[in-house]
Design a protein that fits this description.
Blueprint: H1 7-11, H2 26-35, E1 40-43, H3 50-61, E2 65-69, H4 76-80, E3 81-86, E4 89-94, H5 96-103, E5 106-110, H6 117-127, E6 132-135, E7 140-143, E8 149-154, H7 167-170, E9 174-177, H8 183-194, H9 198-212, H10 225-236, H11 241-250, H12 257-271
Parallel strand pairs: 1-8, 1-9, 2-5, 5-8
Antiparallel strand pairs: 3-4, 6-7
Helix pairs in contact: 8-9, 8-10, 9-10, 9-12, 10-11
């Protein structure tokens, strides 16, 4: 177990932390999971702040962070490492999982279900009470230090039968559900991220929430907090609000002209 002294108490007010506005007790839950050597699964829609949350917590806990964006071609060897030719010799190069275990870092696997199935096989002994990683090519068996933590994320709304976490994998993690912040908090986040006046961020959040109500009808996914930040950034840079809203909040959501027209009408109604 990590010593009882709380890194959050010591570092919680550090001004250079990646900004994150907590909506509940997720920061304390993450710290307790880290202190007690428990892996964490983050669930939530695209652009709701999962990656920023992990970066924030890694900084607050004073741990190095390795982030891997998972994809269809990601293999177990990409995580653990492989032999490479260097200067006419074959040398072993650690992958991010191996480096994180050696250093006692936090490893974050974003959209873990996009990775190939052999990745989860490697993760199983890392996520149970063994906390070990066997490198067959080097003959090593690494035991994770107390400070090491594995965090994975995925978007349940985007997954299907062919891409989902097996129960045997899901039940190895402490799960945390993420959603979009309440409107006031989201407007404050956008203002903090972009420097745009809070009263000018409120209408953007209102539009985004109106678009989110369309999820499951005309849209697979609603407007994310990230897209609101993009729109506010363009407005702060001098672009007209209508053009910024179209480019950042409407165009990324659909390529269908009819859906685009409907989204524009929804945005106009949200603005009043």
């Amino acid at each position: 177990m990590i010593p009882a002294t709380s890194p959050l108490a010591a570092n919680g007010d550090t001004p250079d932390l990646p900004f994150y506005a907590a909506s509940g007790d997720e920061c304390m839950l993450f710290e307790q999971a880290w202190r007690n050597r428990l892996p964490v699964l983050l669930k939530g829609p695209t652009g709701c702040g999962k990656t920023r949350f992990v970066a924030h917590m890694a900084a607050r806990l004073g741990r190095p962070l390795y982030t891997v964006a998972c994809h269809d071609d990601l293999t177990a060897a990409d995580l653990t490492g492989r032999h490479l030719l260097k200067g006419g010799e074959t040398v072993w190069a650690d992958g991010p999982l191996t480096r994180a275990m050696r250093e006692g870092a936090i490893l974050y696997l974003d959209e873990v279900v996009e990775a190939r199935k052999d990745v989860t096989v490697v993760l199983h002994p890392v996520t149970d009470d063994r906390r070990t990683l066997t490198l067959e090519r080097t003959g090593e068996t690494l035991l994770a230090p107390p400070e090491f933590m594995l965090v994975v994320s995925y978007n349940p709304g985007y997954q299907n039968v062919l891409k989902s976490l097996k129960p045997s994998t899901r039940q190895r993690f402490v799960a945390m559900e993420f959603g979009y912040p309440d409107p006031d908090t989201e407007a404050a986040i956008v203002a903090s991220e972009t420097g745009l006046a809070p009263d000018r961020c409120v209408p953007l959040v209102r539009i985004a929430n109106a678009l989110r109500d369309l999820k499951g009808q005309d849209l697979d996914e609603g407007a994310s907090t990230r897209l609101i930040v993009y729109a506010a950034t363009l407005i702060k840079a001098g672009m007209k609000p209508a053009a910024a809203i179209d480019a950042a909040l409407l165009q990324p959501l659909s390529d269908d002209p009819d859906v685009q027209a409907a989204l524009a009408r929804v945005a106009d109604l949200a603005l009043g």
